[in-house]
Design brief:
homodimer; alpha+beta; D-Maltodextrin-Binding Protein, domain 2; 2 domains
């Protein structure tokens, strides 16, 4: 497992290096359709190619563009090569890389790493050993004041927007990084109310939130578990505690 | 003027250095009430103190905590020591410093600088000479596709949230930096629909947007001009062009 974790860290660093040095005008070029049925942009492709090369045959791979690659291994790398692709293409400085290591479903993910490329912040978690930001342990933070700060996914539904009248709302446009903001106590909740996310989007961040003491649920507040399969989509709530569900649902 | 611009740049760099090195747990401590009638936090105070020290008697000063300081000079520094205070306190990596140099009203601001502290990006504009990101010239960008990307202020009204059904929306929580995202073409519009912003919040960014070829208006799409005075509040639309007003208003 330690060797696989080193590979995950290497993927994140190599993608970070490539994205920082590459021509940003090419990021949005259309390359083709990905295995998840959404268009693949140049930036997604070059990032995923780096991951595939580093993993080789030493793990199975689930990623948005290539789909599932079965290398007959015990562990599967669950990858979002670019979290917040639209931000990266546009030039909004909030996007990153997300890599998780699991077996067959979300609940058996045992390692997760998410890096914010523009700031260099690295979020990590190992099942049972805690969550970390730049190697320092992090915990969710509860707030009782009205400035309870919510971070919503970009396509919040009407109800979620109405929450903005009572609480402070951010919509940053990169699911994994937004969930990590809950993990480190910067925000109290992340809410994607639509069934639009795939396990590749939140596998790493879910472990990071839970290891930081928070909760991860589906859009109805129910337990969130799903197979490592691109065809399944879900909404996601990540929160500092159970109480937050009463505000959101 | 060149000497004053150097002072503005020095303010931005010194505040950046202080904020990066200081104890982040202290950022949210309540210090007292500012001249603008809102609470002053530790982070606002230490940032403003740096600005006051650098300017000395070589310019008048308008800033949120100290109000207007008349040093009998021709030029006034219009400062938001921390743009996105709540983000900085919470740990959301999108906040900065904003400094403008003007005389009596928004329209005669002749220099503006905004720095994103977590990423290090520096936006600058000199009246009649263009707008720059990290010293490279920037221009607004028009998009006709449905992925027209809007960046709204955190307290968007109901209509602005409804825009999110047709366009991509971000709410990043730092007005000056969000306006700069319009200037560099990352977003097509910034919209703060409520009369909640002061000239200190947008003096620098307004010049940056206009010098990048964009438009800056009040929340009704009317010309935006106001005295360098903390008592006046306004909504703000910054856009890539006039067309965008039809979508927003």
């Amino acid at each position: 497992m330690e060797k696989l974790i080193e590979k995950a860290r290497e993927i994140v660093e190599e993608i970070d290096k490539k994205i920082r040095s590459d021509d940003k005008n090419k990021f949005g070029e259309f390359i083709g359709m990905g295995a998840d049925g959404t268009p693949t942009n140049y930036i997604d492709k070059i990032a995923e190619d780096i991951a595939l090369k580093i993993i080789g045959k030493e793990g199975n791979i689930l990623s948005e563009e290539c789909g599932f690659i079965d290398n007959g291994c015990e562990y599967t790398f669950v990858i979002d090569p670019i979290d917040g692709t639209r931000n990266a293409i546009a030039g909004i400085p909030f996007y990153g890389v997300s890599v998780a290591i699991g077996k067959e479903k979300l609940k058996d993910v045992s390692y997760g790493i998410v890096k914010n490329i523009p700031t260099g912040e690295i979020f990590e978690a190992i099942a049972g050993k805690g969550a970390f930001l730049n190697k320092k342990i992090i915990r969710v933070k509860k707030r009782n004041k009205p400035f309870l700060c919510l971070v919503l996914g970009e396509s919040g539904n009407e109800k979620t927007w109405r929450i903005s009248n009572k609480h402070h709302v951010r919509a940053m446009g990169a699911a994994a990084l937004e969930m990590c903001l809950v993990a480190c106590g910067a925000a109290q909740a992340y809410f994607m109310g639509k069934k639009s996310l795939r396990v590749t989007d939140f596998a790493a961040a879910s472990l990071i939130v839970e290891e930081a003491g928070g909760i991860v649920r589906d859009e109805d507040g129910e337990e969130l578990d799903l197979p490592l399969d691109l065809k399944v989509r879900s909404g996601v709530i990540a929160g500092c505690d159970e109480e937050i569900l009463k505000v959101l649902i």
